[in-house]
Amino acid sequence: MFRSRSRAARAGRGPRFRHVTAVGAAVGALALVAAACAPPPPPPAGSPTLGVSQVVGGLSVPWDVAWLPDKTLLFTQRASGLYALKNGLPVQLTNGGPDFWTASETGMMGLVVDPQFATNHKVYTCQGSTADSPIGGHPNSAKVAAWQLDANVTTATHLYDVVTGIDDTSGRHGGCQLRFGSDRSLFVGTGDAAYGTNPQNLHSLNGKVLRVQPDHVNAGWVTNPFRASSDPRTRMIYTYGHRNVQGLAFRSNGELWSAEHGPDRDDEINRLRAGDNYGWDPIPLTYNEAVPMTNFGKYPGAAGPQWKSGFPTVATSGITFLSGAQWKQWQGALVVATLKDSRLRVQFYTDLGIFRGEKIPAQFDRTVGRLRAAAEGPDGCLYVTTSNVTNDRILKACPS
Predict the structure, then answer these.
(1) Which residue among 151, 245, 341, 363 is the one 20 to 30 A from 262 at the CA level?
(2) CATH architecture of the domain formed by 39-399
């Protein structure tokens, strides 16, 4: 069920208030019920023909990919740092620095290039750190680091940390995805660190999507929903109540969507709106995974997903929206990489965000193992990374 929001809320300008007449509310409710009950239309008929090739192999858990303005490919490997692909070979730009920490699902993770790279040569990573977490006295954390690349793209120099103190216990549910908004605000998707109170705690950065200023340390974006809080950590929060955000992607209409891991069921694709609670609350036990992924019973106003896996989970990971006429009927579709299911899902949604169906390309139907990242490159092709620990690859799928 979709919920009405004011124009200010849709623009992300803080708390939502809406005044409607009783008749108008009733008509709107009936329209929403009718839309929810109607069967979704099928996805577009026909698919582009994909040609798949290997960009680079011999890797270990390549987590994310990004491109410099000159189309140089950058990528992270969870256990070993940030790399550039030069003349077909990986060149390590940094091993993560002296406080780099990797364990379980945490290490060198999300990666993004500054929209102003041409003038500042900055890129950003989300990575594990040996610095203590401020939550529960845990000995490790995750952070977002700013790096400056040299002119020849052979080294990355650490400049400062954009976000610090993201809780990270054993390394489980470490997140962590990065994306820039059109206004150069930096979005950070975090995991809940498998610590029960984190997702609903507005003084914790975990189980959240943050929106921050990339040129400052622990500075929330000025229009964030909790900007009036006295706690700078709360001021960084854009949405909360998440379990483990693995993917972020902007739709062509400016909406930010996420992919999120569920417990034993209900991985989710969510459409994110400022200030919303997505309903994950794994208490009262230390970490109670028997509760619903979106707990409408406890939080009736929670934001529901656009799609969920049901049982069992598929482990949704990186996501991207396809753009350009080269994708034919797939233009505008959401591509979802999956780890456990080892499939690439091309999902179709209406303009209102209603799921219409999906297609699975034969070349990525459990043929190359676990899939981590999915990103559209500057050449209009789709780049996909595998996550099998050994002999991992970055693959390129081009429509013809």
Answers:
(1) 363
(2) 6 Propeller (2.120)
When the pLDDT of each residue in the chain is averaged and rounded to a whole number, the result is 91
Strand 177-180 versus strand 186-189 pairing type: antiparallel
Task: Give the predicted TM-score (pTM) of the model.
Answer: 0.90
CA distances from 4 to 8, 30, 354 (A): 12, 13, 15
| Paired tokens of 119 | 């003038």
Which stretches of 171-266 are assigned E, i.e. beta strand? 177-180, 186-189, 208-212, 237-240, 245-250, 256-260
Overall average pLDDT of the 130-151 stretch: 93
Give the Cα-Cα-Cα angle 348, 354, 356 (nearest 5 degrees): 40
Confidence of residue 44 (pLDDT cuts 50, 70, 90): confident
Average pLDDT over residues 242-250: 98
Position 37 scores a pLDDT of 53
Residue ranges of the domains in the chain? 1-38, 39-399
Sort residue 100 into left (φ over 0), alpha (ψ -120 to 50) or beta.
Answer: beta
